[in-house]
Write a structure and sequence with these properties.
Metal Transport, Frataxin, Chain A, three-stranded antiparallel β-sheet, about 25% strand, globular
Length: about 90
């Protein structure tokens, strides 16, 4: 799955991930004061290689279709929380 660093910036912002930048960009999804999951990618510009895009999608606990919706904007923060609830990741 090809995605860009710009796509990831949008995702991090939309989900309100707490960001720490070192050799990579790390983001934590925090819900009700508890860290739920971590996502990371490297710095730079351009596209993120396909296998890395799939790892990011997996870190977010999304299927391909929902991940594309998250990038394309039809999937909101509340929709994402609902998906995590359905999967039993958050209560």
């Amino acid at each position: 799955m090809q995605i860009t660093k710009s796509d990831m910036k949008t995702v991090f912002s939309k989900l309100g991930l707490e960001i720490r930048s070192t050799g990579h960009v790390y983001g934590w999804f925090v819900y009700n004061g508890k860290k739920i999951l971590r996502v990371h990618h490297s710095h730079g510009k351009g596209e993120i290689p396909g296998k890395v895009g799939d790892k990011i999608r997996s870190q977010l606990k999304l299927n391909r279709n929902d991940f594309l919706k998250l990038i394309g904007c039809p999937l909101s923060y509340d929709d994402y929380v609902a998906i995590l609830r359905e999967k039993g990741i958050i209560e």
